[in-house]
Amino acid sequence: MTPKRLSPRQREALELVQAGRVQYGHEHPNMARRGHSTFPVFLIDGHAAHGQQGRTFGSLEEHGHIVIRHDLVPHEPVPAETRTGRTLSGTDRTVTIPAHDAPIDKGWRANVEPAAPGTAAETQDPANPQAQGTRA
Q1: Rounded to whole angstroms, how far apart are CA atoms 121 and 128?
Q2: What is the enclosing helix (H) or strand (E) of 122?
Q3: Residue 132: pLDDT band by 50, 70, 90 thresholds?
Q4: Spatial separation of the C-alpha atoms in residues 115 and 125, rounded to whole Å
Q5: If you average pLDDT over residues 96-108, what whole number do you get?
Q6: Which of 23, 51, 69, 105 gets the most CB atoms within 10 Å of its CB?
Q7: What is the widest separation between alpha-carbon atoms in the chain?
Q8: pTM score, two decimals?
Q9: Around Cβ 118, how many Cβ atoms within 10 Å?
Q10: 1-38 confidence digits (pLDDT tens)
Q11: Helix, strand, coil: what percent of the chain each, to 5?
Q12: Which of 40, 74, 72, 71 is nearest to 57 (CA)?
């Protein structure tokens, strides 16, 4: 398989990660703590990535260039829960959510780090001058 050359936007995103400016989590942690519906996004200096920049970070994670450190977010065990709801047609529906681990803080944010040396981030990018010395 030929190595994939990183785009200028991907290289810029990797520079932001290496500078320690990127996190993954809730943009508005206080809203998440109050139970409002929020979803985790990539954050740069505490603000959501603009436009397709979030997708760029997602692509870098899929290809193994960056790692979201979910393991550093404190978790606690949550017992199984049974919920009953009613559909639009009036039918009762019961769903059982199995026991699982969940973050203690509902407004969690995880650090994003470059992948470990010797992984895809350095060995696949032919434009990376540091990778040139690692090839045989």
Answers
A1: 9
A2: helix 120-123
A3: very low
A4: 13
A5: 94
A6: 23
A7: 67
A8: 0.73
A9: 9
A10: 446 789 999 999 999 999 999 999 999 999 999 988 88
A11: 25, 30, 45
A12: 40
